[in-house]
Amino acid sequence: MQHGNNQRVYIQDVAVRDGFQIEPEFIATSEKIGLIDTLSRTGLAKIEVTSFTSPKAIPALADAEAVMQGIERVPGVIYTVLVPNVRGAERALICRADELNIVMSLSETHNLTNLRMKREQSFSQLAEVIRFARPTGVALNVSLSCAFGCPMEGVVEQDEVFGWAHRFVDLGVDGITLCDTTGMAHPTQVQFMCNAFKQRWPSTELTLHFHNTRGMGLANVIAALEAGVDRFDASLGGLGGCPYAPGATGNICTEDLTHMLALSGYDTNVDLDLLIACGRRLPAMLGHDVPGQVGKAGKVSDLHSIPQWLPEIKARADAKVALA
Amino acid sequence: MQHGNNQRVYIQDVAVRDGFQIEPEFIATSEKIGLIDTLSRTGLAKIEVTSFTSPKAIPALADAEAVMQGIERVPGVIYTVLVPNVRGAERALICRADELNIVMSLSETHNLTNLRMKREQSFSQLAEVIRFARPTGVALNVSLSCAFGCPMEGVVEQDEVFGWAHRFVDLGVDGITLCDTTGMAHPTQVQFMCNAFKQRWPSTELTLHFHNTRGMGLANVIAALEAGVDRFDASLGGLGGCPYAPGATGNICTEDLTHMLALSGYDTNVDLDLLIACGRRLPAMLGHDVPGQVGKAGKVSDLHSIPQWLPEIKARADAKVALA
């Protein structure tokens, strides 16, 4: 393996959807739009803007239309939205979404818990969305939850993951996201799964979506990069969380990911300073601390000033050397 | 690269020295001993017990002798202690330390700031320790701070790192620890440095000491493993911190490291459940939260129970399928 080498890596931010949807206080539409507009200028490949779901189910994103219509589109950025069904797809298309992201879980128990239906029912519903949206030319991505394990069922076999992936590839989706929804993936598993996926579907756009619930988030990114993956979801400030792990961190943090990739010689196309500035707006906006580290510690290249008392210490040390 | 494969990895805990030394409240000697005695039974390869420095300089570790004499030695565990000078080495030898760990920084500015002397002065003092202790047969390890960068000077060239390492190898140390003191290392750098070190000094025991200041701690472990490194410092609960990055996390967390390695197929020899139980004692002992993630989220294999309302949801879903 040889890291870096200026290889292009695509970073996709999900904070304003995946992060904001669990915030207890409603974030003003204008604040969402302001943040997305700044994020758009950082050079991110994709921004998951909102979710066209029922406002009753996710009140935090009840302003989906207003946000989509309010933001300024920057050429080159893909504005994706989550849609659960055909009704959501209609709303998203009216708002000129560049991509529809559809979601189901690979664990029957998790799908029942989260989406209140069986996997086959989810699949039928999503197949309908695909058939409905395909002719419009909009891009279609499917996010497969619990691809690396289910917090209730445990192991999700790779055959299961690839079986569902296969059915979606057959329906003509453009991209597939393997989601480590509750932070269960580990580097060996990631390496194995990504290698197998890339071999089987070399022309399907593969995204990895990691959570840092057990501290393995960026280690899994390294493992995925080695398997040739070049596209990652991440969340500004590390927003996101997980209902199964209270107190644990959420999605991998976009600033931390971008910072590591830039240092390691990858080309992310992202203005890291502007990105960090975006992340530093979150605590005031949300009224709480966020888990991201680089926002707190600064970049490796942000050097600290030499303490004022150092010249005196140095003079004393020099004097001792002279005496010796 | 092929991860895991039951390869042995040695885990060395530094929490009771590196972590405890910056705790504002003095931790009772009996509590320290109790924690170390449990840690000893987890199967860790090495425990850094305390520091034989001046009690005025580090009051938190003023009970170094009492701790060393109070702990129960478990065969197979190496009990190492930090010593700054010959006086410290004498005290450590009286307490039958298995290993003396000596420290200097590879950055002149950081060494002056931290140890109040020039690097050459530190080197002379440590060379004296080595000459004094060598005949006793005690193991000797040198920890080189800022091996991956200095928070004030920035880049520390690899020639600089290897130049100092060379001088210590010549003096006959058994092991060298490359310390990423303030969390500046990134995976490409780690891979490059570790490969070069292993090639140059294949028989010197190499330890990597990472901090998670910018979220890259476990990613750097993956990079180091790939370069053939099999020995890591880590800190229970992720204790440690860094004065240059307020609010940032400290050393990589022993539970998080062990959990990742075990999942990824490495042989750590560590009883992960007992280790996690140790880490969960810290918040009560210290009066504050700790940064480690696995202690909060549990292991990947700690499954969550299925919600009580799930059978009803499932019955409704089944009914819908039957109707369709």
Automatic annotation (TrEMBL), chains A, B:
Single GO term (MF): metal ion binding
InterPro entries: Aldolase_TIM, HMGL, PYR_CT
Domain Pyruvate carboxyltransferase: from-to ranges: 9-276
Name of the molecule in the record: Hydroxymethylglutaryl-CoA lyase
Signal peptide: none
Pfam families referenced in this protein's UniProt entry, alphabetically: HMGL-like (PF00682)
UniProt similarity note: Belongs to the HMG-CoA lyase family.
Keywords: Lyase, Metal-binding
Origin: domain of life: Bacteria
PANTHER family xref list: HYDROXYMETHYLGLUTARYL-COA LYASE
Any one Gene Ontology BP term: ketone body biosynthetic process
